[in-house]
UniProtKB/TrEMBL annotation:
<dbReference type="InterPro" id="IPR005113">
    <property type="entry name" value="uDENN_dom"/>
</dbReference>
<keyword id="KW-0344">Guanine-nucleotide releasing factor</keyword>
<dbReference type="Pfam" id="PF02141">
    <property type="entry name" value="DENN"/>
</dbReference>
<feature type="domain" description="UDENN">
    <location>
        <begin position="24"/>
        <end position="284"/>
    </location>
</feature>
<dbReference type="GO" id="GO:0005085">
    <property type="term" value="F:guanyl-nucleotide exchange factor activity"/>
</dbReference>
<dbReference type="GO" id="GO:0005829">
    <property type="term" value="C:cytosol"/>
</dbReference>
<protein>
    <submittedName>
        <fullName>DEN5A protein</fullName>
    </submittedName>
</protein>
<dbReference type="InterPro" id="IPR001194">
    <property type="entry name" value="cDENN_dom"/>
</dbReference>
<dbReference type="InterPro" id="IPR037516">
    <property type="entry name" value="Tripartite_DENN"/>
</dbReference>
<dbReference type="InterPro" id="IPR043153">
    <property type="entry name" value="DENN_C"/>
</dbReference>
<dbReference type="InterPro" id="IPR047278">
    <property type="entry name" value="DEN5A/B"/>
</dbReference>
<dbReference type="GO" id="GO:0005802">
    <property type="term" value="C:trans-Golgi network"/>
</dbReference>
<dbReference type="GO" id="GO:0031267">
    <property type="term" value="F:small GTPase binding"/>
</dbReference>
<dbReference type="Pfam" id="PF03456">
    <property type="entry name" value="uDENN"/>
</dbReference>
<dbReference type="GO" id="GO:0042147">
    <property type="term" value="P:retrograde transport, endosome to Golgi"/>
</dbReference>
Length: 284
């Protein structure tokens, strides 16, 4: 039986520099997109511990759910705010395990990856020119209007893309907690504080490994009907587990549902649920 830990795994997903840039087959063919808009395959780079007997690690499921859109690349001109999301893995026996992921962007230091991205852009630009080169009869009119490929704007600038000599390349990376219960707010704070420690110019009071070890091995699940307070990197973190006489744990802000769907749609959904209609939610 499970020993009742707060978290079972700490997982890191991102770019595997050894395998390089692999198209993400789950996202479908997107070669018509500019390389910075394509999605590439992410990998589970590390997990701690390696395995726990009461919760076997499903590498394919965790890797896909941690970064459902695959790897994303950006430059210094793009917004790179961290994004948080949660997921559930349901096993064949109906048991569930919960995942909480914080995705952020870090600078690509591999020269091979930067060169590969530059090569993809050169290939994309060459294909674009072949597809959009006007017939011979139209070239005179192009030269008079200045609207064709022979403008002062470079090919790389035309696609708002990546120039290895000018731009800094960033790639998405994910840190994740796999837990037996859905303590969303607490997990989000843990991950945000870990990310803050990594990006802060000042090191945290203790090595990062100490905080991860504490979460995995020293913080227990709170008993039913009790609260638990433990130390994060920069401050205390509190979670509460409902008693058997209370509603089940649902640690997600209802406010977000109204922000995403709007009041009228939420009322309509609630009405459909009461009338036992079938409800389908579609999301990207």
């Amino acid at each position: 039986s499970a020993p009742g830990r707060f978290a079972d795994y700490f997982v890191i997903c991102g770019l595997d520099t050894e395998t390089g840039l692999e198209p993400d087959e789950l996202s479908g063919e997107n070669f018509e997109q500019t390389p910075l808009r394509r999605t590439f395959k992410s990998k589970v780079l590390a997990r701690y511990p390696e395995n726990v007997e009461w919760n076997p690690f499903d590498q394919d499921a965790v890797g896909m759910l941690c970064m459902p859109k695959g790897l994303a690349f950006k430059t210094q001109a793009d917004s790179r705010e961290p994004q948080f999301h949660s997921f559930i893995i349901t096993r064949e026996d109906g048991s569930r395990t919960f995942g909480f992921s914080l995705t952020f962007f870090e600078e690509v230091t591999s020269k091979q990856i930067c060169s590969a991205m530059q090569t993809l852009y050169h290939m994309h630009n060459a294909e674009y020119d072949i597809l959009h080169t006007p017939p011979t009869n139209d070239r005179d009119s192009c030269s008079s209007t200045g609207d064709c490929n022979g403008t002062s704007v470079s090919k790389l600038q035309r696609f708002n893309s990546y120039d290895i000599s000018r731009d800094t390349l960033y790639v998405s990376k994910c840190i994740c907690l796999i837990t037996p219960m859905s303590f969303m707010k607490a997990c989000k704070k843990v991950l945000e504080q870990l990310h803050q420690a990594v990006t802060s110019p000042q090191p945290p009071p203790l090595p990062l490994e100490s905080y991860i070890y504490n979460i995995l091995y020293e913080v227990p699940l709170p008993p039913a009907g009790r609260s638990l307070k433990f130390s994060g990197v920069y401050g205390p973190i509190i979670c509460q587990r409902p008693s058997t006489s209370e509603l089940p744990l649902f640690d997600f802000p209802v406010k977000e549902v109204f922000e995403l769907l709007g009041v009228e749609n939420v009322v309509q959904l609630f009405t459909c649920a009461l009338l036992e209609f079938q409800i389908l939610l579609y999301s990207q």
